[in-house]
Design brief:
Layout (H helix, E strand, L loop, with lengths): L1 H15 L7 H24 L8 E9 L4 E7 L1 H19 L8 H18 L5 H22 L4 H30 L6 H11 L3 H19 L7 H8 L2 H26 L1 H6 L1 H20 L4 H22 L2 H32 L10 H5 L1 H13 L6 H13 L4 H26 L15 H19 L2 H19 L2
Antiparallel strand pairs: 1-2
Helix pairs in contact: 1-2, 1-4, 2-3, 2-4, 3-4, 3-10, 3-14, 3-20, 4-5, 5-6, 5-10, 6-8, 6-9, 7-10, 8-10, 9-10, 9-13, 10-13, 10-14, 12-13, 12-18, 13-14, 13-17, 13-18, 14-16, 14-17, 14-19, 14-20, 16-18, 17-19
């Protein structure tokens, strides 16, 4: 079932190869069918998942025996949550692709390939398989930004590719060093974790390997100062690609930290915890200040992402049960909220053909229900209680306070700045007298409501009933924290 969930989108991409380019409705329908079937398979896995057990739905067979590489997929609570987020945002992004009118067939082939790569990465338990999916993700996103993007799309696509490939190469070097140093001919993540602990490997060696592996993940996460590709890619990508890039692909960096670097090299993770926490706080404050200075709505959203990913890194660095749980919760919440924000950026641009917030004003009256949804998304982004954004940030701060008190103080300042730029954004776009040029704008259509309403519902559900995913995360977080604390 796990392989079915991962590779159904790829099967859909192969089917699309035989569909004529002119049949755009059939192309969209086929893509939605295979995305929906993949989501259904993940739902079946979720219903059969037992929160009190470790890895489940395990598939472990030789893939490249000569290189000791296995096709090793499995699911624990962390994987399951990320698979659910990927499936949901994949469906939302596909529905939001109505604005793609050129080379539709190629777009959805790349879209489905990207979906398979993201799903595969979140359940890969072999490091080479993990790197394989990690690199496959880059190809479709590069073309999606470069072909269907706007502005300096070619520049942004190349910059994205260069940064992430460099990170991938450095990460692969660290992984190979780990493989050869243990000398046991395995790339299995669970097996390597035991080998590193039992072999008592030199601390200085672990530190260098840790830095190599972490570098790739920090680039993907968009942490300052490795973030400069992020605003360009987020702004110039088409809305569906922006949703997946910010909502899912950015989380790959955090997932990799939890699944690979922190878990495999706990001594080095402890040694560099303060550095990671400081980088997280710098990202929180810098991202919030940079967002406040923006006039382009989409660029404000991009720097907002930098700030929120800082909270994720701070929680991971703290390494306590509450902080790590908060970091994962923030990953999921941010994916939902930033999806709403990018969708609203698309709604505004479709109607006004501008993203300059100085040209807006009084849009609450002009847009009707869309104005209310934008206000909802802004409140979720600033962490209003009862919405999902509050839970993750609160858990991170509470869990990190016992470890990094000074850093938490600065992170709280970042929360004030985040509230400030979100309120400023809402005031700039929604408040004030209605402008003559924006009177009579079309309200939300059925397709737009179909993308926004589910995300709003999930945002409220997670804010009011956070235990709906926290109970699934309890065991993998507990195991990670125990692994870190045992060193």
């Amino acid at each position: 079932m796990l392989s079915v969930a991962v590779f159904l989108p790829l099967l859909g991409a192969l089917v699309l190869l035989f569909v004529p380019e002119a049949q755009t409705r059939a192309i969209r329908a086929i893509a939605m069918v295979f995305l929906s079937l993949s989501a259904l398979a993940i739902l079946i896995i979720a219903f059969g998942f037992h929160a009190g057990r470790g890895l489940q739905f395990v598939v472990d067979v030789p893939w490249m025996p000569a290189l000791h590489v296995n096709y090793y997929l499995a699911v624990d609570g962390l994987s399951l949550v990320m698979l659910g987020l990927t499936a949901l945002l994949g469906l939302i992004a596909a529905i939001a692709s109505g604005g793609i009118t050129e080379r539709v067939k190629l777009f959805f082939i790349l879209f489905l390939l990207l979906q398979t790569a993201m799903l595969g990465l979140f359940c890969a338990e072999d490091l080479i398989l993990f790197v394989f999916f990690f690199d496959v993700m880059l190809i479709p996103m590069y073309f999606m930004v470069g072909i269907w993007g706007s502005g300096r799309r070619e520049y942004s696509a190349v910059k994205f590719l260069i940064y992430t490939i460099i990170g991938s190469v450095v990460m692969l070097i660290g992984i190979l060093a780990l493989y050869f140093q243990t000398g046991q001919h395995t790339f299995s993540i669970p097996a390597l974790a035991q080998l590193v602990t039992s072999h008592n490997l030199a601390v200085s060696w672990q530190d260098w390997v840790f830095l190599a592996i972490v570098a790739g993940f920090l680039i993907k996460l968009g942490i300052v100062p490795l973030h400069t590709w992020l605003p360009d890619a987020y702004v110039d990508a088409p809305i569906p690609a922006s949703i997946l890039l910010a909502g899912v692909m950015a989380k790959v960096g955090a997932y990799g930290l939890l699944r690979v670097s922190q878990y495999l090299l706990p001594v080095a993770a402890h040694n560099f915890a303060t550095l990671l926490a400081v980088l997280g706080v710098i990202s929180i404050v810098y991202g919030a200040l940079a967002a406040t200075a923006q006039h382009d709505f989409k660029k404000l959203i991009a720097y907002s992402s930098v700030s929120h990913m800082g909270f994720v890194l701070l929680g991971i660095a703290a390494g306590t049960q509450l902080a790590v749980t908060g970091a994962i919760f923030e990953m999921v919440s941010h994916g939902i909220v930033i999806g709403m924000l990018f969708l609203m950026a698309g709604v505004l641009y479709d109607r006004t053909h501008t993203r300059e917030m100085a040209r807006f004003g009084g849009m609450y009256a002009s847009l009707g229900s869309a104005g209310g949804i934008l206000g909802f998304a802004g409140m979720a982004n600033l962490g209003l209680p009862t919405l999902s954004g509050f839970i993750g940030e609160f858990f991170v701060l509470a869990g990190a306070f016992t470890v990094f008190r000074t850093e938490v103080f600065w992170a709280i300042l970042g929360i004030v700045l985040i509230a400030g730029f979100n309120l400023w954004m809402m005031q700039k776009i929604l408040m004030g007298p209605e402008r003559e040029e924006w009177k009579g704008l079309p309200h939300l259509n059925g397709r737009e409501l179909l993308t926004l309403v589910p995300l709003m519902a999930v945002c409220i559900l997670l804010g009011v009933f956070p235990n709906s995913i926290i109970h699934v995360l309890h065991l993998p977080v507990q195991q990670l924290v125990a692994h870190l604390g045992g060193q």
